[in-house]
Amino acid sequence: MGDIRVMRDDLLPPAPAERRHLLSVADLSRDDIERLLATARSFARSLEREMKKLPTLRGRLVVNVFYESSTRTSSSFELAAKRLSADTMSIKASGSAVDKGESLKDTALTLGAYDPDVIVMRHPQIGASHFVAKVTTAHVVNAGDGKHQHPTQALLDLYTLREEFGRLEGLHVAIVGDVLHSRVARSLIQALDLVGARTTLVGPPTLIPRGVEAMGCETSTEIGSIAAADVVYVLRMQRERMLEGANYVPSLREYTERWGVTPERLRSGQKVMHPGPMNRGVEIDPRVADAADALIETQVRAGLVTRMAVLYDLLTSGPVGVKAAQLTEVA
Amino acid sequence: MLFSKAAPGENLIVRGARVLDPAGEVDGVLDVRVDNGTIAELGSRLDPNSHRIVDGERLILAPAFVDPHVHLRTPGREDEETLASGTQAAAAGGYCAILAMPNTDPVVDSASVLGSLAEAAQTEADIPIGFLAAISKGQEGSELTEMAELADAGAAGFSDDGRPVMAPGLMRRALQYGAVTDRPLALHCEEPTLSRSGQMHEGAVSAELGFAGYPSVAESLMVERDLSLAAYEDRPLHLLHLSARESVEAVRNARAAGVRATAEVTPHHLCLTDEAVRSLDSNLKMNPPLRSVDDRAALVEGLRDGTIQAIATDHAPHARHEKDVPFEAAPFGVTGLETAFAVLYTKLVEPGLVKLEVLLRRMSTGPAEIYGLPVPRIAVGEPANLVLLDTQAVWRVEEDGFRSRSSNSWLLGERLTGRVRMTVAAGRTVFEA
Predict the structure, then answer these.
(1) What is the mean pLDDT of residues A238-260?
(2) What distance in Å separates the CA atoms of residue B8 and residue A77, rounded to the nearest whole number?
């Protein structure tokens, strides 16, 4: 009898380990951010080698589920997983069962049945990643949920700033444009607050959310106030999110005239960032986008190593910095 | 008019409870005898005869509750609630009467739809139901319903609840023509071009979460409009589910100026603020939305000082698969019949924000008076409409404990103090636990 009991105990599934997700910058501590940036940096060094692939996540499955179109985020997650030797699978909403009216819950349960280690999810609705995290056993990375959060974008932006300035604390960042509809802005405001940087939101009064100051930022409707910042972070004018007749701005022409980021409005040496995709000639003057002070391509490169760091961090535990160092030696 | 199953009144004695009828100024440990469904005697050590004896020791016996605002989803969405399940849920919540809103499919906008509901209630309803009829045909806001005929057919009042009466001209006509009936107009105040696509209260929390904001001024602007029209026409009106400080202040000022305005508030607006939405739980999505700390304080103050006379659950059942989605995709509305007393006792009475006597009045006398319904009383000769309350019981709200067909409660998993032990409605025991 006693033996049978032992057998039964052996057959019991192991107690579920606490699953970690990256759903919102609000869930991160400053230590988490420092650890992730350090890991990203060690991956950046490993990518300088001729053999760029690391065996770290061999046998792991990373599923990318994108309910919205995306070039840089989906490609960089996919490449990040591949550089770490994970298996990847990408699902787009169009052409899948989603087109047939499948609920998010059923899609998540279906994907969950393949036992993925990580689900990377982009969805037009706020809280979609949180929802999937509740119904599957995978680690979930929020790659953008409606107007809410885009935490890996904020991390790659911090990484870019750290590489450029050598510090984060005390930096002054002006975020310009359509903050109301921007998940990038929401994540970045929280991330900058967490690392002790200063943030000023600049844009039309209709596109600065009421009450946003409580997140730890200042607001201004004067484009001239970007002059005081170390970095000007230009947001995309999200035309696809503008409701017909909502009248946030009378016209794009007036927006560009009043809040477009042009060389004349920048100090020399002032750095410029943009999360992409850009509307050249709308929120950003093409001369600004192509200038040496633009960090836009650096951001894209930072996206790869930051997302490698996020995948690695979620799938490992313990002192990540140490492990990351060992891994680069193995590679 | 109220409709329910016909059943003979019971004989029973509730022994040794603290009998508390704040409106009737009764408060003392007494036995209450009910003969054939009518309260026959209040006293001590009453002779049992052959009456059923209910032990009320350490419990409170109060006039049963009246809910002036529930959605029974019948006709059209019987998968979410029926007259039977809705009245069973109400009985479990301590209610002896409920009023059902007309935003069903089809809308209750004709005497034939109302008549079929009234008939169904006479075979299915465990406790009396009053049915409101629509103000405008199809609740579309363009043509008045046949209010006189609907009133004759038993409409308890008129409402386009779920949506506002958008055109001021139609609102004025409804107030004017409504004078042919003695039934209240009950108004859902929302300016749709201001609330458009709003998911939650507009403020610091919506700014952070990214949800489109539904500002408090979207409500208070319509409250002010309707109060102005009511003053001009010198007609009474009832305002549904207030959520904003400015609305409470407008009602208070209008009442002081002589406008015959009444108002109700829900348990969730009295207990929660928009901070709760941070959980992204779709059971915290309702219309009007949960508002700020300041708004909540104004609602509690309005409840205390009588600016708000009634607590209404706005019980809004939704199918599980419709709520089991991300917040933005979920429909508005939460259930509330079975948890109202417990959560209000836990969050308002225990912390000392509202006296038990005030809570009991706002859950019973207040709503009954607004709609001209029989007021539940504990006095000899009154029909027995009684609720036996255990204010020491601590319990946990569990999904499988509901009598409602739906379980979209904002209180799942919460521990609450205060439990309904028995409900007597229209002289008959309809719930015992």
Answers:
(1) 82
(2) 70
Give the integer Cα–Cα distance in Å for B192 and B209.
22
Could you tell me the sign of the dihedral formed by the alpha carbons of B347, B350, B353, B357, in that order? positive
Residue A132 and residue A187 in one domain: no
Q: Is A186 on the interface with B (CB under 8 A)?
A: yes
Say yes or no for a CB contact (<8 Å) between A123 and B326: yes
Same domain? A171 vs A98 = no
Q: What pLDDT digit, counting tens, does each position of B27-65 carry? A: 999 999 999 999 999 999 988 889 999 999 999 999 999
CATH number listed for the domain at residues B64-374: 3.20.20.140
Counting one residue from chain A and one from chain B, the pairs whose CB atoms sit within 8 A come to 72
Q: In the prediction, which pLDDT does A18 show? A: 62
Contact status of B204 with chain A (Cβ, < 8 Å):
yes
Q: Is residue A83 part of a domain?
A: yes
Q: Is A214 on the interface with B (CB under 8 A)?
A: yes
Residue with token string 């700020």: B292
State the Cα torsion A310-A312-A314-A317 to the nearest 10°.
Answer: -130
Q: Within an 8 Å CB–CB cutoff, is residue B7 touching chain A? A: no
Secondary structure class of B112 (helix, strand, coil): helix
Q: What's the CA gap between A191 and A30, in Å, rounded?
A: 9
Range of the domain at A122: 8-149+301-312
Check if B202 contacts A (Cβ < 8 Å): yes
Instruction: Tell me whether residue A25 is in a domain.
Output: yes
Tokens 């970690």, located at residue: A20
* Chain A residues with CB-CB distance to B206 below 8 A: 209, 211
How far is residue B361 from each of residues A245, B38, B267, B364, measured CA to CA in Å? 47, 21, 14, 5
Computed over every residue of chain A, the mean pLDDT equals: 88
**Residues A16 and A134 reside in one and the same domain:** yes
- CB-side neighbour CA atoms (13 Å) of B133: 30
- Chain A residues with beta carbon closer than 8 angstroms to that of B211: 126, 147-148
In a domain, A306, yes or no: yes
Same domain as A130, residue A157: no
Domain count, chain A: 2
Burial class (CB in 10 A: 0-12, 13-18, 19+), A2: exposed
- Reply yes or no: is the peptide bond before residue A277 cis, omega within 30 of 0: yes
**Strand order, beta sheet including A198-202:** A218-220, A198-202, A172-176, A231-234, A271-273
Query: Do A90 and A124 sit in the same domain of this protein?
Result: yes
Least confidently predicted of A242-246, B114-118, B183-187, B218-222: A242-246
All residues at 6 or more sequence positions from A222 whose CB lies less than 8 Å from its CB, including other chains: A202
Q: Are A104 and B325 inside 8 Å of each other by CB?
A: yes
- Tell whether A168 and A124 lie within a shared domain: no
* Residues A243 and A113 occupy one common structural domain: no
The ipTM is: 0.89
Mutate which of A98, A109, A126 to test chain B, going by most B C-beta atoms within 10 A? Answer: A126
What local confidence, expressed as pLDDT, does residue B101 receive? 98
Q: What is the pLDDT of residues A42-65, one digit of tens each?
A: 999 988 888 888 999 999 999 999
User: Do the domain assignments include residue A171?
Assistant: yes
The CATH number of the domain holding residue A86 is 3.40.50.1370
Would you list the domain boundaries of chain B?
64-374
Cβ contact (<8 Å) for A126 and B202?
no
Chain-centroid distance of CA B112 in Å reads: 25
Q: How far is CA B134 from CA B101, B155, B158, B160, in A?
A: 8, 9, 5, 5
Same-domain status, A236 and A261 = yes
